[in-house]
Amino acid sequence: MTIATLSFTSSFTPHHTFHHRRRRHHLLKPTTKISSQVSLTTPPSITLQPTLKKTGVIVVGAGLAGLAAAIRLHSDNIPFLLVEASDGVGGRVRTDNVDGFLLDRGFQIFITGYPEARRILDYEALDLQKFYSGAKVYYGGGFHTVADPLRHLGDAIQSLTNPIGTIVDKSLIALTRIRVLTQSDDQIFSAEETSTINLLKRIGFSDSIVDRFFRPFFGGIFFDRDLETTSRLFDFIFKCLALGDNTLPAKGISAIPEQLASKLPSNSIILNTPVKSIDSDSESESSHTVRLNNGETLKAEYGVIIAVEEPEAVKLLAGKSNDIPVQIKPPRSTVCLYFSADRAQVPVPDPVLFINGSGHGIVNNMFFATNVAPSYGPPGKVLVSVSLIGLYEDVSDEDLKTKVVEELSGWFGKEVSVGSWKYLRSYRVKFAQPNQCPPTDLQKNPKLGLGLYVCGDYRTSATFDGALVSGRKAAEALLKDRSLVQAS
Ligand SMILES: Cc1cc2nc3c(=O)[nH]c(=O)nc-3n(C[C@H](O)[C@H](O)[C@H](O)COP(=O)(O)OP(=O)(O)OC[C@H]3O[C@@H](n4cnc5c(N)ncnc54)[C@H](O)[C@@H]3O)c2cc1C
């Protein structure tokens, strides 16, 4: 990965006097102490001034949850620092630029119907590029269209008699849509729950639509082809899909966290700085000390918001609250492989998602990213994105690539020379999403104790939106405790 070398410097000053300079990422700006020129991939050694390490709130983790928490604090002019272990903002929502191709770190779709996202993001500035509302299902050696009748009526009528479900199934989809649209998000998240597969059976969907459509489509969203994920998450996603479009930002999925970070004040984000531990102070109830991996400490007068992913939260918060489990359910994992191709080697120009309804093979879904957003590749080139569910730890990248090429050659037949596609890179994401099988609580209280708050997608719905909501709510819990906002 080629990333520009940037100068990284720091000194800690109290109460929001950090300033940042934005190039590709937010960085600390020289004030008094300078360290060295570092690559964003190399953790810098930050030297802190011992007397100047205090702020109002420390937010740990600059994923969507941490960014949303920071934005909420900033809207109330609360001094804060956002401390991030890695070399950029976004957490799981990052994009790499490889030879002019925008490679999202795993296949991600931004659904415009997400309610919190609508409130906090500027969609126009994200230049969102739409997917076809539906999918092409690979089944029985061919492709069959499943289309949203409200957006592609003609296709939907044509698809009524295809083998991806019965006509009854297609009317049940319409009824499910009405059911979720007539419920509030709160009702959905607190509804009686079961697994998604049980819900689908209870509604009366046939095995053919479950196996050929729901398993690859929602299994691809949950990274769970068994559809053991809670029915609450299914209903929420189904509702958001009905309310909005599936999109990609023209500049890559990382444009979302980067837009959020750009709303924060200069030098409020510190990159390459893993937090090691958090301890409450004796002198004040809410004050906490945050110890960094490099041995330095920071003090947060009003409290700390921990916005790291679930396995990290378990480590950082071990023994601090019964609300944080000692052991978590096995997370959801995925592998995403990227290829480049010439235009002639691509079967369709459509911005459509292909899903595997055949019940065979390792590919769950794939699409031609440049068909959705031409900016995802250099002129004349096509970016191919292929997703698998699970981590395939015992299979090498080379073997996975070979299997995928063989499988897709079978999908697309002789007219498309899949073998000529150039392999670019794979991403194996072990913790793609928290496991949200029942029983779940998707509205967990962010407060662990006075001055200690948690957020992240594992506290709400395992979605962009859930992460954003949880970050805002953690900040609001802190503000309420500090009586810095009127209780609503
Ligand atoms: C491949 C993939 C596809 C996805 N697809 C979708 C999708 O299509 N739609 C959707 O809605 N959601 C999708 N998701 C889920 C979505 O990305 C997450 O729910 C959301 O981004 C979680 O945000 P977060 O802030 O809770 O956690 P994270 O993004 O994990 O952020 C946590 C941050 O904390 C930092 N951190 C960890 N430990 C420390 C430490 N000790 N000190 C300092 N910092 C630390 C991490 O580096 C990270 O930046 C997908 C996820 C993946 C991986």
Task: Detail the topology: elements first, then pairings.
Layout: E1 5-9, E2 20-22, E3 26-28, E4 34-39, E5 54-60, H1 64-75, E6 80-83, E7 95-98, E8 101-104, E9 110-111, H2 115-120, H3 123-126, E10 128-130, E11 134-139, E12 142-147, H4 153-158, H5 167-181, H6 185-190, H7 196-203, H8 207-222, H9 231-243, E13 246-249, H10 255-261, E14 269-270, E15 275-280, E16 288-292, E17 297-306, H11 310-316, E18 332-342, E19 353-356, E20 363-368, H12 369-372, E21 381-389, H13 397-412, E22 422-433, E23 447-449, E24 452-454, H14 464-481
Parallel strand pairs: 5-6, 5-17, 6-14, 11-19, 17-24
Antiparallel strand pairs: 1-4, 2-3, 7-8, 9-13, 10-13, 11-12, 15-16, 16-17, 18-21, 18-22, 19-20, 20-21, 23-24
Helix pairs in contact: 1-10, 1-14, 5-9, 7-9
The structure holds flavin-adenine dinucleotide.
The site of flavin-adenine dinucleotide has 34 residues, from α1, β22 and α14.
Organism: Lactuca sativa
Protein name: Amine oxidase domain-containing protein
GO molecular function: oxidoreductase activity
